[in-house]
Amino acid sequence: MAQLKVTLIHSVAHRLPKQRKIVEAMGLNRINSTVIQPDNAATRGALFQIAHLIKVEEVK
Prior knowledge:
Elements: E1 3-8, H1 17-26, E2 34-38, H2 41-49, E3 54-59
Antiparallel strand pairs: 1-2, 1-3
């Protein structure tokens, strides 16, 4: 199963509370923090909502 490497590149300050919760739930704490997430529909949906704040790469 493929995985996604997610990096926070923009601050969540002054963002909607829902977007802040998604970033926190992903495990991203501060700018340039990175986490590995499974590539599934739930993760893709969450990433779509915060796409303007993150950078996503596929990890094999």
